[in-house]
Amino acid sequence: MSDIINILPDSVANQIAAGEVVDRPASAVKELLENAVDAGASQIQLILKDAGRTLIQVIDNGCGMSDSDARLCFERHATSKIRKSDDLFAIHTMGFRGEALASIAAIAQVELKTRLHDSELGTCVTIEGCEIKDQAPCNCSKGTSLAVKNLFYNVPARRNFLKKDTVELSHIEEIFRRVALTNCQTAFTMHHNGKMLYDLKAGNFAQRICSIYGTNYKERLFPIQESSDVVEISGYISKAEYVRKTRGEQYLFVNDRFIKHPALSAAIEKAYIDVIPERSYPSYYLKLKVDPSRIDVNIHPTKTEVKFIDEHAIFAILRAATKKALGQFTIANELNFDAPADLPLTPAPDGYIPQAPTVRINTNYNPFASTKNESRPSYSGGHSESTFTTRNEDASKWTDFFAPAKTELPIIESPQATQSVAFNMDQTEGSDIDNACFQLMNRWIVGKMKTGLLLVDQQRAHERIWYERLLNRNRTVASQQLLFPINCTFTPADADILTELMPELASRGFEMSQLGKNTFVVTATPTGIREESLQEILEQILSDYKGSMLQKFADRDQNLCKTLAKQMAVKTGNALQQAEMQQIIADLFCCHTPEISPSGKRTMMILKEKELEEMMR
Ligand code: ADP
Ligand code: MG
User: What are phi and psi of 157, to 5 degrees?
Assistant: First the structure.
């Protein structure tokens, strides 16, 4: 048999390589934008025609190239970014080195104009399918302009596979946004078919987000910041009330590169799970800093996937940081996007020495002495005391909102407030009148604050209170023995599930055992549950549980608590006593996430004086 092996000509080899680097206009855009950033540009323009099919041009004011570099940069493995093998690890974080321009030149007609900052004259190179057609001195601005014309002109298969212009353009926009979000100090513009689509001035991360997505993002996001040995997290996440129905604006950057990481995204979404409605998704713009040597390098470099050696730790830290940020910021706190991303707190006056809050317990407090509403069991169930003491730290941040009723409840005295000065409730020592609230339509509790008016949805608020109480694993929920045990019967499938759920139910105050195959006898329930609806409640728990098995991030314990909280909460339509209303407000402000119900609805609203004024105009 004769020899059959040929060495491929460079032009063919480059075309093959091109397929890996450039598969659609957006990937050429990515390479050109990144080169412009690498060149130290402070101003980058992207100009497109026909979604990049006809023209992709990137103009920068970066360092520019010498005459010979302008030719060399189109050679394969031509790069100024690796000199020694030590630099090679950069390949793993930055994509293939020295491949991009060679690849693009193999599948398009390219015109490069470039001038070094200290040269009088620039140089213009035209190249087509890897062949240099022309090089001549030219007049051009400092920096580089690279125009890619008729992409895939010599690869009809690829060209035919391109999607509609709108689709290709949206891919390009996504790349543009990712690059713009990682380089906030650089100004960017983007034009398509003569129309300007983006005009982004240099600024900080928050300003960049707003200039891309609109200034109303100011109200939608709050900052997140966490520092630890394995990862540093900073950025912005959406407030619970601004989540979206699709997973749109979710950006994770690791060491200034955009990445996709389903597990880390799940960590963030998990933190939201009890404060947003089902099937809705938070937006986030998060920057992670990780030691590059703790990133697994065995991953395709042009792709956006990354593997972390400390994935578990990063997952836990990210989830906790998100939860913390969610709890820390309330609807009342608006983010100041022009200021650095710190907590928007009022600083303490000079010389102010903070004191630890103290808890004063009323030893005469008798949970059974409270006036009960005949139509339903008392909701306080004696839990409020422990809520206050275990949540002391959290509570202190809210005490200025509302001091609990002083006649029969434990009282938290906070040192002179500096954190939430704006929310000070009207309070005069010893006077209950100041905490007085009233009920509107057996549905809302209306309270008075120094800064305005407080409106609380009684049912939603109480669901939140119960939910957090139930979730708090450190405390077992008080249980009441039933005078007469109750038998509940289920379908065989439901009975199986219930058996499985029994340990969780037990820790929430249910005492039950299996009687027959499908029958259970319940001997105790959490305090506050109505005996006559026991069967119904258990069925609700089962149905919520079955529903949640289909959801990716659902936590079965959280779901159980959600269902129970719904059962225990006072309902719209229940008339409330003064003390009960005050208790609800006090308990609500001790919650981690007071402003959102477990099913993601708003629990309360504060109408500030200014807003009231507006309304009265
Ligand atoms: P890489 O960026 O991985 O080095 P490229 O093929 O993208 O590989 O670019 C090759 C080289 O061309 C770069 O290393 C850089 O020296 C030069 N270069 C490309 N684009 C620009 C630019 N916009 N400004 C200055 N130099 C550039
Ligand atoms: Mg490059």
Answer: -60, -50
Task: Using CB atoms within 10 Å of the CB of residue 480, give its burial: 0 to 12 exposed, 13 to 18 middle, 19+ buried.
Answer: middle
Query: pLDDT digits over 287-328, tens only?
Result: 999 988 888 756 665 667 888 989 999 999 999 999 888 877
d(CA 117, CA 551): 57
Compute CA distances 521 → 161, 477, 485, whole Å. Answer: 64, 20, 6
CA atoms of 519 and 495, how far apart (whole Å): 8
- Is 31 near ligand 1, meaning CB less than 6 Å away? yes
pTM score, whole prediction: 0.60
The whole-angstrom distance between residue 421's C-alpha and the CA centroid of its chain comes to 28
The DSSP annotation for 60-92 comes to E-S----HHHHHHTTSTT--SS--SGGGGHHHH
Which tokens is 416 given? Answer: 């002179």
Nearest ligand to the CA of 101 is: 1
Q: 413 - beta bridge partners? A: 358
Give me ligand 2 centre to Cα 208, in Å.
23
Amino acid at 122: G
Instruction: Compute, in angstroms, the gap from residue 381 CA to the centroid of ligand 2.
Output: 66
* Alpha-carbon span 174 to 360, nearest angstrom: 56
**Is the shortest distance between the CB of 70 and ligand 1 below 6 Å?**
no
At 470-494, the pLDDT tens digits run 887 656 667 888 888 999 988 888 8
Q: Which ligand 1 atom lies nearest to the CA of residue 101?
A: 6
The token duo for 387 is: 């809520």
Instruction: Return all residues near 128 (Cβ < 8 A) that are at least 6 apart.
Output: 108, 109, 110
Q: Is ligand 1 within 6 A of the CB of residue 122? A: no
Distances (CA, A) of 78 to 73, 99, 110, 112, 128: 5, 7, 17, 16, 17
- CA of 64: how far to CAs of 33, 35, 125, 557, in Å? 14, 11, 13, 59
Question: Which amino acid type is present at position 307?
Answer: K
Tokens of residue 271, six digits: 């933190």
For residue 97, give the ligand 1 atom closest to its CA: 3
Ligand nearest to the CA of 44: 1
The response to whether residue 41 sits with its C-beta less than 6 Å from ligand 1 reads no
Q: How many residues does the chain have?
A: 617
Sheet order of strands, 511-514 included:
479-489, 519-526, 511-514
Task: Give tens-digit pLDDT for 345-404.
Answer: 344 455 555 555 445 555 554 444 443 333 333 333 333 333 333 333 333 333 333 333
SS3 314: helix
